[in-house]
Amino acid sequence: PTSYWQDLDKAHHLHPFTDFQQYRKTGGRIFNKAEHIYIYDTDGNEILDGMSGLWCCNLGYSQPEITNAISEQLQQLPFYNNFFNCSNQPAVELANALVDVTPKQFNQVFFTNSGSEANDTNIKLVHRYYDLIGKPEKKLFISRNNAYHGSTVAAGSLGGMSGMHKQYTGLNYVHHIQQPHWFAEGAGQDKESFGLQAARELERKIDELGEENVAAFIAEPVQGAGGVIVPPASYWPEIQRICRERDILLISDEVICGFGRTGNWFGCETFGFEPDLMTFAKAVTNGFQPLGGVMVGNKVADVLTAGGGEFAHGLTYSGHPAACAAGIATLKVLRDNQIIETAAQDVMPYFQAQLQTLVDHPIVGEVRGQGMFAALELVKDKSSHERLAPDSAGAIHCRDKAIQNGLMVRAVGDAIVTAPPIICNRRDVDTLIDRLSRALDTTAAHFNI
Ligand code: PLP
Q1: Of 116, 223, 257, 433, which one's alpha carbon is 20 to 30 angstroms from that of 368?
Q2: Distance (Å) from CA 318 to ligand 1 centroid
Q3: How is this protein annotated for GO cellular component (predicted)?
């Protein structure tokens, strides 16, 4: 029975991003099956996964081509590493497939197991690059408030999540600027001028730190874990201009945006910029195996491959054969079936249009989104943007009601966030909207609105 698993879980399992003491009291929901876009708990409840796991199962859960590729690979060569002068066949094949689907400046990849490690790798790659071109003083990274780049010490330092920064000391060479969050920080201003102003924070920070000291700017095309912060159209072209003019490397963290989430293969394509490095993870294997990495653009790769000796960095499982087999199969499913292109034409605009209908709901202050993810800001007062309840209680209440209704969503601050698989059809979207709007109704009634 469920209580057996819950008791064992509470006794021995420390969960990520969880209040351990609280969890000991409440326990959690335990999942043991998934199909299409639905997950099932040990009580047999069916829940539409409006979060694609952790924004990773873009193709949902029923993908036999991927699961078969993993098991076949485990029979053939369950492990061999890529250290020193060795390689394994799936890693070679996936590296080539990634070069095919990424923007033209990318011809090299470095594999990791996760997005966090990939961002740690970015720091080392960038520092090495500047050492090799004779600018070793360029060490500083600029990132954004409320960004999420992972939870290792280095990736967590790049991130701008205040909760994480309260618990450990971040790296002293990382600096943060404003996020382009119009609803929270720019209300009353024209969106596009707000976008330009937010981008120019980067220029001001570079001036403050000294251009000769700044190595790179890293950002997610759309901030995901921070609450699906979709930047105004003016934002990214201005960021790119500043990075180019000031000789700062531009890193796009595509861990959530990559592999279709925004309606193109990569978020930088949707927002029209050309990064020098690109972080990926999650949906590269549809979440079925742990795999991440950095696509290294020619500007940096040409220097790193032209001499300078060993790059002293790597992980036992960098380019693990079973993970790479999952990646090869995922890219094949995406390409052979033109899944991203089809979704961008059909289900994504439908999803966004249906979500926009919720903007008339009394507790919804803004609906923002791109491709197949979105956020709804919950408010008490639409015109003043006054939050629904202190301490995110409004969004937490709504999330819990949505889960009770059979829809997994996330609460981020005062927002409800959803990022369902991109293989949803219109009927799936209707089910999602129905379960979400009922949760909004219950929440409004609970807070007397
Ligand atoms: N970068 C972004 C944009 C992310 O959203 C995440 C995870 O959510 C990461 C990096 C970290 O990836 P991982 O959890 O695989 O270490």
Answers
A1: 116
A2: 17
A3: cytosol
